[in-house]
Amino acid sequence: MNTRPLALTREDFMAITDAVYCILILVNEKGIPVYWNSAACDLERRLPGSCREIIKRLGESVDAVHCEGRYVVTAASRDFICHIRPWQTGKRRRGSIFIVHESCVSSCAVQELNVVRDVVEEIDAVLEAGSTGLLVLDSRGMIKRVNRRFEALYGLKRKAILGKSIETIREETQIPRELLDKALHKRQHGVSLVEYKGRKLVYTATPGLDRNHQMRCIVVDIQDVSSWKILWEKFKEQRQHMNEFIRKVAVLSSHSHDMVIGRSQAMQKVMHLIEVVSDVDSTVLITGESGTGKEVVVNEIYHRSRRRDKPFLKINCGAIPDELFESELFGYESGAFTGARRQGKAGFFELADQGVLLLDEIGELSLAAQAKLLRVIQNQEVQRIGATRSIHVDVRLIAATNRNLWDMVQQGRFRSDLYYRLHVIHIHIPPLRERREDVIPLAAQFLHTFNTKYEKHKVLTPALCRLLMVQDWPGNIRELENAMETLVVLTEGDDLRPEDFISQIQMEESEAIVTIRRVAPWNQTMAEVERKVLQMTAAQCRSTRAMADVLHIDQSTISRKMQKYGLSLGKKK
């Protein structure tokens, strides 16, 4: 075949173009039609002015003189598919060639066009709905689509750039060349951060491949991250609203805690008091034996109160030595005493400002410490050690004790003035033996908790429930909780029976875990104690993990010491 260019006359050119079925329109660099073939003339005879309207409609959407590509236009109430190809001599573009198909040749073509138009409109809607700038290129790097956000980012109009090479706007948009090359030639996803006119833009280029892994397009996403700071502030504001909502939900669902506290008539009175005192700032004194749930009551009061989003601090008064009491509760200034922090330290009262402070085991305070505490409660002011001025604090006080403070007042071991300061509202929690109707609901709650924790499926038998009801529970709720954990961990089978509980009581009530028959060196004696404890626990457990749970030490420590003493797991007899 001869591939050399042919020398065609005007008549030859017209004969060839007239033989083509489709409409051919040639426009110059000013967009003025300079030639159309016989198919275009036929269209003009059927629909006068339609060819010029096609040119006009294309010019409204794209720069038809300088672009190329495939477009759908509506003219003379009909749809046309137009392919734009460059008309050029050498490297100089002289205009465009419009190759136009009348899409209404058949009803099938009309239906297909409607489907295509719907898909195109959906794609356009998706592109325009995005909050980021979007640029779509074909496999040659020609611009096929942009959205309004892209136009706004760069001040460009789509009519001026559609159908043109990305290279014509690359420098203006500062899209990194290596990002485009990676997507176009290596078919790889890429991300790049660019400074553009004082803004930070993140460019993301993603190649679009068809089912045959052929390149169809490149989608470039441009996100202005300089506005993220504003979004972050909005997020924090929304998070505050969400936290407030969560706190309200927590208050509404606080009745789920009732089962932990109890559902007896005595505890319902306690719950009523909690509801009443939660809305005020009066000082509350909570009394009751050890293990009755005083701290649970304190938590309920705090979570229902207006201060629920403020600090909540708990102090065990019995664990603070007298010489440290003042520095821990009131704080100290820099250099107040030897060993003091260089920057000083805020005390518990300062840290709890605007919130709630629990003084647990208040009956353990010495008389000297009671006097210092009374002064702060009366004046609502604290003075750090070494300071020359006082600091006002707004703290709601809740005190708790397992002692009879009034008896201590009568014995001269507790200040009467402090007693009356604390005894504004008194909540007494009765022991478990005085509210036996709470035993089974509490046991069921603890059983559910430990079944979940240890992935067990233990159930209470009616016989065991009857046995639990007649126990005195000197350790109250805490003792019941510990008993349920021990039963879940150590009992074989899923049914918890009375004999399982009795065997645990016998083990606890035995005189000693280890009997020392002779005096021996300390290390030897402690090793023997350790060995016997491990041996006894191994007889009750099926795994070192269960042993670790019972003894409250790491599983690795159990394994190491079992190997040290030559012990192995055994079954309960």
What features would you highlight for this structure?
Rossmann fold; ATP binding; Beta-Lactamase; 573 residues; 5-stranded antiparallel β-sheet; elongated; 5 domains; 24 helices; 21 strands
Describe the fold and architecture.
The chain has 573 residues and is of the alpha/beta class. The chain is 45% helix and 20% strand. The strands form 6 sheets. Strands 2-1-5-4-3 form a 5-stranded antiparallel beta sheet. A 5-stranded antiparallel beta sheet has the order 7-6-10-9-8. It is elongated. About 2% of the residues have low confidence.
CATH topology of the largest domain: Rossmann fold
Proportion in β-strands: 15-25%
Would you state the CATH class of the largest domain? Alpha Beta
State the domain count: 5
Mean pLDDT: 82
Strand order of the main beta sheet, please?
2-1-5-4-3
Supply the CATH superfamily name of the largest domain.
P-loop containing nucleotide triphosphate hydrolases
Overall morphology: elongated
Instruction: Count the E strands.
Output: 21
**Low-confidence sequence ranges:** 250-259
Helical region count? Answer: 24
Helix content: 40-55%
Radius of gyration: 43 Å
Reported CATH architecture of the largest domain = 3-Layer(aba) Sandwich
Protein name: Sigma 54-interacting transcriptional regulator
Pfam family, one: PAS
InterPro entries: AAA+_ATPase, AAA_lid_NorR, Homeodomain-like_sf, P-loop_NTPase, PAS, PAS-like_dom_sf, PAS_fold, Sigma_54_int
GO molecular function: ATP binding
